[in-house]
From TrEMBL:
Keyword Protein biosynthesis: yes
Gene Ontology molecular function: any one: ribosome binding
Protein name per its UniProtKB record: Translation initiation factor IF-1
InterPro entries recorded: NA-bd_OB-fold, RNA-binding_domain_S1_IF1, TIF_IF1
Protein species of origin: Candidatus Zambryskibacteria bacterium RIFCSPLOWO2_01_FULL_35_19
Similarity annotation: Belongs to the IF-1 family.
Taxonomic lineage: Bacteria, Candidatus Zambryskiibacteriota
GO cellular component terms listed in the entry, alphabetical order: cytosol
Boundaries of every S1-like domain copy: 1-71
Length: 79
């Protein structure tokens, strides 16, 4: 594989925390089930209900992967 395929990254808000580090994330177009990426678990980055996060959507329609927690203060100033 020479080039990595483009990953679809969306910004959403966490609406519900589920067992086993799963989260329900509301995006603009839909609500998906997402889990924390390995780096976020490794560095113990906490996410809570109401946080804005970046989610990489699985191209096959499965779960999303939370890759970054966004700074809510900056996001609220821009909106």
């Amino acid at each position: 594989m020479i080039d990595k395929e483009r990953q679809e990254i969306s910004v959403g808000m966490i609406t519900e925390a589920l067992p086993n580090a799963f989260f329900r994330v509301k995006l603009k177009e839909a609500e998906v089930l997402a889990y924390l990426s390995g780096k976020m678990r490794l560095h113990r980055i906490k996410v809570m209900i109401g946080d804005l996060v970046e989610v990489v959507i699985d191209p096959y329609g499965g779960k999303g992967r939370i890759v970054r927690r966004l700074d809510n203060r900056k996001a609220n100033l821009n909106n």
